[in-house]
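Posting here for the record, re: magnesium ion.
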Amino acid sequence: MKASAYLIPTAKEDPQDAVVASHKLMMRAGLVRKSAAGLYSYLPLGLRILKKIEGIVRSEMDLAGALEFQLPILTPSEIWKESGRWDKMGKEMFRLKDRHDNESCLGPTHEESFCVLVKPMVRSYKDLPINVYQIHTKFRDEIRPRFGVIRSREFTMKDAYSFHLDDESLDKTYQTMRKTYRRIFAGMGLSTIPVQADSGNMGGSASEEFMVVSPIGEETLTICPSCQYSGNIEKTPVILNPKSSKQPFVGSEKIHTPAKKTITEVAEFLKTKEENLLKAVALWADGTYVLVFLEGDRELNENKLKNHLGCNELRPMGPKEMETLGLVPGFIGPGFPKSVNLKVIIDSLIDWNFAYISGANEVDYHTSGIQISKFFKDDEVSKIDVSQAIEGDPCPNCGTGLTAEKGIEVGHIFKLGQKYSKAFDITVLNDKGKSTTTTMGCYGIGVNRCMATVIEQCNDDKGIYWPVSIAPFTVCLVSIAKNPEDIAKIESIYKALVAAGIEVLWDDRDLGPGFKFKDSELIGFPIRLTLGKGFLEKGEITILDRKSMVEETVPFTTNEDLVGKLQNQIQALHETLKKEVEQAGI
Ligand code: ATP
Ligand code: MG
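Prediction output follows.
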């Protein structure tokens, strides 16, 4: 490809709304353009990368025996009503009506569609297992699209769904997908950690997210330095025992704490530790009022609470609602006026006999010496783990202190179980001729998010350095020549590279060398070949390895010799990646 006939709209300045490296660099390198909030157009260079990522995903999925489909993006409301998700999915689901007033939505995911499609095609256990997938557009009306294509509203997902006769078969495919995922990510140069995850409103039992450790990650992972455990913090159980070494606060029983509402303010005011206070969190959960007590230094893990309550929507209680229930905002303690309309949950970290400080249920007052056991009977309240794990908490497997890292979720695998097979009545005849409900798995990868995540991992002050497997072009040939004879010489080298199957972008634009070098470093072609003054005057060629920025000057002998040299270098880059893939597949 000749750059003069291509489109390389690079920019010097970072776009104003970009805060992370990948977003800035994708825009500056001319890979994408923003079309509206959370919507991006891919330009030719960017699309080449996206297609290569899709290619890796496709070939590994095919290798794992999955079958590729392509389904409509628009999905009818009926199938979502059948699964019960039409009302459960919140505003992320983009709903619309057609000219006949039929309700549909832009598919945020395709469990329902694939279930309806596959159901009549599987009749006997002999038709199973089957793993079906597509690489296609999803739409989620994200409340806060951000970080460019990392969280956009329209994006490409590889989503796969497997159907099985029994759990054993599901587990086999799940394990195959687990390995396949690690190979896919390694194939594009991403090192991932599978972490135990929450299944959210997908339903099902086992679920793992594939995380790339990155400071810009929106997820927090807990990792055990001793054993294999790694989890999403949303799911990490807190197995700490109540601390027996805690010293209760000594002081008057009723304490005037004027305008001290937060735990930190009260603890500072009373010169005591936050863990000696009781934190009360008042919430509304699908129409039920809930009051949660936690130790003062712990945050509520809403996910754990949602799972326990089985609710979809959880929000803080409003001041009016609190007033109706007799709760005093900022000063709630276990002595609040009990009501049948209020469900009480006590976090399992709370020591029922410890003398805590809590709100006095009166504005500007707290009370010390509060023992939970004096206020509630065991069977009156739920005692469950609803606190967020923190760094240093014991590993749920081996007890070693956990470490925490930020991570970007690039993929997610679930054992869905029978949630959808039951809803859509997907049954097959087993080997005894008996009708049996199938069980399912589902497996997603965010293709665009992968592209941005690679940039997050592979960038420096000059720009991007693409892993060879997904680079838009493997080689950038920068030429600096004016007269036709010299240009013809360079063209013959370009043609030899193309003939040898090397993906080369020849930067033949009528621009200065500095400009061309900057562009090639910004866009991040793995290898740069310079045919400039040295070549024309002394027959010398420089070859730059973009990642290390190490430049080598070699004598030019023949086109074949140069092609061979480059092929070796490219081969070496592929070999390195291949080794990583092999390791990741274990
Ligand atoms: P998140 O927690 O980041 O919102 P999710 O858990 O809702 O993602 P899944 O339903 O598991 O996402 O979708 C599978 C994959 O699709 C994710 O692992 C991610 O890589 C990608 N993905 C999800 N939402 C987006 C988005 N808004 N923009 C880009 N990619 C996305
Ligand atoms: Mg997910």
